[in-house]
Structure formats: C-alpha cells, structure tokens
Amino acid sequence: MKPALAVLASVSGAFVVALRMTMEGSVGSGVVCAVVAFAAAMVLGGRTACAAAVLGVLILAVPFSEPVTGVAAGLVVGGLAAGLGGTRAALGALVVGTVAGFALSPMFESIPRRYADYLSEPVIPTTHYVAMGVFAVLLLAALWAGLFQSAETDDPITAADRRRFIVAGLGLPACLLAASSFEFFERWPLALLMIVVFVGAAFVLPGSTGMVVLAALVTLASVASPVYGSESGVILLAALLAGLGVGWRWSRPVVALALLAVGVVAEALGVFLMGMVFVPLALGMLYASVRPSSGPATVIAVTAIPLAAAIPITVQFGWTAYTPLTSALTAPYSWLWATSLVAVAASAVGVVVLQRRRNGSA
User: Fold this and answer.
1) Which of 26, 17, 132 is nearest to 73 (CA)?
2) Are 46 and 80 in contact (CB under 8 A)?
3) What is the distance between the alpha carbons of residues 304 and 192, in angstroms, rounded to a whole number?
C-alpha cells in the first residue's frame, strides 16, 4: 500500500508542476524551478521535504508572478524527490507525471498559450485546481502514512558524486538560459546546441544516472504532435503505460530508442496516428528501462523538460513554445525531423556508453 501511495503522490505532483510550467512557458521561471528543485533534492529530507512540497502546492494555487511560480514548482518536485525518492518506482513516477503533464497540457488549458501575453494577469484553469487538489490529498495521505519519515536512499552520495551533481544540476539550466538569449536566424543550430548540452550533462553525472537526462532529451525532440482532444490523450496515456510495462519487464533502452526513431519518421511522413502510438510507447519503455536510481539526477531531467521546451528544441506551434503566426505556415519541417533523429541517435550512443560505464564499475 505504501509504495503505491508514494508512486501516486509522485506522479500527481509531477503532473501538476508540468501542467503549470508548460502553461507558463517562461525560461526564467523554468530556470528558477530547476535550481530550487535541485537544491531541495540535495539538502531536504523527511518532514522538511513534505513541508516544502506542501508550501509549493499552496503557492501554485495562487496566480503569482513567474519567478514565484518557479520557486513553488521547484519546491514540489524537489520535496517529492527528497522525501519519496527512496525507491526507483517513486522516482520513475516523477518522470512519468512530467511527461504526461507536458504532453497533455493543451487539454487542460482554458486559454491557448499563444494568447497568454495579451492577458492582464495569469489565469489558472479550473482543471489545474482539480489536479492540485488531488495531489494535496495524496501528499497528506503520504505524510500520514509515514512515508516522509522512512524515505531514505540506499546509496549515500559521495563527495565526488556530489560535485558532479552540482555541476550538472546548475550547469544544464545555466546553459539553457544562455542559449535562450542567443539570436538564431535558423532554429536548427539551437536544436543541435541543446543536444550537446543534454548529452554533456548526462556524461557529467556519476555512473549511469545520466541516462534519465538522455531520456528527457528525446522526449523533447520526439513529442511533436499536439494533444488537444480527449481521444489522442487516451491513446497517449495508454501507449505510455504499455511502454512502462514492457520496459519494466524487458529492459532494453536501445530497442526503445529504435522504436522512437520509427515514431519520429512516421510523423515526418505524415502518419501521425502511428507516431502518436509509437512515440509514447517508446518513451514509456525507455524510462522504465533506464530506471532512475538517483533523486538529484531525476530532478535534473524532470525540470529540464519544461525549461528546454520554453526555448524550444522543436517547433511546437502554440504548444510547447510561442511561435509567431507569420512563420507558422511557412516554416520548413525538414530540420525538425532531422534534428529529432540526431537527438535520438546521440541518446542511443550515450546510453550504450553509460551502460558500459556502469558495467565497468560494477
């Protein structure tokens, strides 16, 4: 019962944060969220982690400015990772909730994000309040069940590993922030730069913990079809859960990446239904295969998804990033699919190398 409660609390909290941060679409707020979440995951624990998550969800319920929203979202993610991240299932739930919230966010928006700049103040959709209420109930239930008292990691972080986590945890959002300030005449150089940044962060992290960061990269590079209808949302969730089941029983991250490449090619050829099934199926299988084993590394991956999407890595008209309507109808798609495949290929190579690193150190 307790492990299931930890998973439900983690997935619902990550889902709430992904919804809100994707709706915000702010690089500055995303950087604040990433830094606060990483710091909380590194220093908090027990009841203090629960208190941070409770404070975070209370602040999210109020339409504050973007930096405050980023702090609140970071407290939720960091608190959950620090307090409930004692098992791989709970850490995996953080990733699953983030991917689901990131992909399904258009279904939960009362006003399309491309019109958000014209509003005098931020508007939080009613569905967000419902999701926050469910998370609050699960969070209090987890506290009552004593999960925040007993959550401890099996492997303490050494001083050398701590330095690696700090470099990756602060370096990745810093690089994304710097990249967002550059003026690119074409989008593909930015996409390639993001690939380099994510792969670099994955290799900086100790052992094979960086594989979850590579999974976050391919999530950004492959989820290219907006999910606006309930039918497509059901298909995405069903495929994601099926992939998680397959990956948990049959851990093959390289096979998952190959399946993901098939989904990307299918979308490039206009077979969107096939891509809508293959992409979440492969992502679920990939995340279950890499099985996040480190709270800080998981937090880095989870917070990087909405942050990088605000730049963005891939063109998402009116979805993960604002794109001027004047260019939406004329922008070429060739670079989009090409850089997506480059990201998948780079992640596959990175996963193989990190697996060998893990096997060599075992």
Assistant:
1) 17
2) no
3) 16
